[in-house]
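Below sits the subject:

***
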Amino acid sequence: MAIKLTRRSFIAATGASSLALAVPALAQSRELIIISNRSNPKQREALETIAANFGRAAGVKVAVNNMDHEAHKTAIRNYLVASPPDICFWYSGERMRSFVEKGLFADITDLVEQEGWAKVVPSMSAVTVKGRQYGLPTAGILWGLFYRQDMFDEAGLTPPKTFDDFFTLGEKAKAAGIVPVSMGIKNMWPAGGWFDHMNLRINGLEFHQALMNGEVAYTDQKVANVMSKWSDLIDAGLFTPNATSYAWEQAASAMVQKRAAMLDLGSFVKQVTPAEDIDQIRFQLFPTIDPSIGRYEDFSVDSIHIPSGAPNPEVAREFLTYFYQPDNLATYIKPDGNPPARIDVDLNDDPIIAMAINEMKTVEGTSQYYDRDTNPDVAQAGMKGFQEFMVYPDRADSILGQIEKARERAYGAL
């Protein structure tokens, strides 16, 4: 029989539609409701398969509800309080911590210890608050520059290794009728990656983390220096015109279709890359700006959680243990092209994942992505500001002033 949601309040609270998973016609009393935020259709299918297999093996009615990726960021604030599911997917770092502090994610430290997961998950700290674990890392997104090797060969382009190289790339790309750097900031967050990379390259990891923690003002001269350097790239015409009209998928597609040379994104660029073109995609870390600054990168960790109000917590723990088995985790991760959180999950046959894993060997320290690393209200103000900055770089001072007001509300005056 088909699996259906049994709690109407869940639908009312989130507007999510249930996805029925087929299981044998057995009398089942145990249930499990999962909320996913996956935008990749193949990854959604992988999750549905894992959930269906678990349901059959454990005698559980399973409902997988997939929400729009952007809508989920708002909906989760409501459903964790009003009608929590048994399992949900979210982000680690500050995004997770804010829910932990409100008591909305369950402590699973005993399960982590029981299964020995910390021994095979180096990024377990990403889901740890005050020594306790509140979720499991699934995969990490290493952000950097993507391009097509065949197009670079055809146009005589060279990947930039320094900040000055960006301008050389820009001149040659434009001469060939190609947009130098593809950008799609309709949903604002891709601009956060540029700020992160520029700040990490100019001011280093310690300063960046202090800024993310609300310990430094956005009006600090070091932040102004970042915006000044970024403005130089905008003024040189390196980015997609009217970038606010495009989502990340459109920006990535421009690179894949050889209409743009490069873009700064996560390895989920694989989602819009045809299988026959995968072997031409190349990845490199963001260029050096100050040679005295170490190699620090954005490495944002996705995670899976049991809400504290889960109606079926024991079943949720069973599913978590099943889902986190190496083979199942590999099945879930592979469609997205991200390095797995477990070191005993081997996906090196995927060229994009293999490139990311290889580049990670040179990384000296990592931060989360901008909107995962700071207070949500500050992140919203920052991303909105960076989006505006891409259009009006001359407003840098006023934009930083507005973000600083949000920082003061969240963290207090310095």
Remarks:
- The domain at 142-299+358-411 is CATH 3.40.190.10 (D-Maltodextrin-Binding Protein; domain 2).
- Residues 37 and 73 are 9 Å apart (CA to CA).
- DSSP finds 16 helices and 13 strands in the chain.
- The chain has a mean pLDDT of 91.
